[in-house]
Amino acid sequence: MKKNLRKIGMFAIAITVLTSCKKDSNPQPVIVLGDTVQSIYLIGNNAYVMVNGSAKIEVFATESFINGYFVNNEGNFGSANGSISFVDQGNSSEEVDITPFHINTINVVSPRYMSKVSNSKAYVTDWGINGVQVIDLLTNTISSTIACGAGPEGILVANGFAYVCNVGGWGLDNTVSVINTSTDAVETTLVVGDKPNSVVVDVNGAVWVLTGGYTEYDSDWNVISETAGNLVKIVGNTIEATYAFAVGNHPEDLVIDASGTTLYYSDGSWSKAVYAFNINDEKLPTSALIDKSFYGLGVNNGYVYGTDAIDFTQSGWSYKFTTDGTIIDSVQVGIIPGGYSFN
What we know:
Oligomer: single chain
Largest sheet: 5 strands, mixed
Mean pLDDT: 79
Strand order of the largest sheet: 9-8-1-2-32
Distance between the termini: 32 Å
Number of strands: 32
Low-confidence stretches: 1-35, 64-100
Radius of gyration: 19 Å
């Protein structure tokens, strides 16, 4: 509960673009998002910027992006004035002063995550309406809304459906809403376990949902009760398998590698570690891949990335590991680095 409150808190942040310390003929830049800037999505010719605590989505032209890097010096991201730093192969940084080309503002309530459905349509999960906003990408306006469970967060579009994690908002939910992307209607609702937080699809088209479990506190923040988190496999919009974590652990940040065969997630209580799970495994791993607690997790180009927010007041760090858990390098980034977007 306390950690969730920190995650949706409003902080001044910096978005830092990282590249490996090792020279690469085809470098893969990584955009590390702080917690105030919830997400940046590149769809078609536009960039959609969502901010925690802001009741709108800012739309910018992709001219705001140079060689895949988002740059902004004084742009108003709702409640955030983000600064942008570039970190080159030598770990030196340089601020770039370019103003984005603002196109439109889409007024929503509490936008969380966005997923492209087609060239003309996208879905945005919205806490404020306990549902999904349907965005017309041609006009950058809301065309309709879809009612879901409480506190919709993570969303995945795959197999002609959208899978929406209903984490419960300030309360509790244990469902995934499955939306038919042709009709923009909920086709079924699956009970997966308390507080589903992230969702991915594997190479075979199976959908995997991670739930964190629920902790109930008394007025003094003493734990009254807890429920287990689950890793749930969904095939054909039916739950095929459920893998339960130990009660007291609260897994989060489910990601998948480019091959679609290995899942990575953080698990533990207040102190967590990173685990790897092959989609053909029959039980959860007992040994951690990376014995370190991260605030955000990502995987790209054969590497595992993790952010450390330190004490949430000073600049954080981003770490890069091989898929066998060997650390490659690290770089200091902005305050409260919350996640990754890979170009």
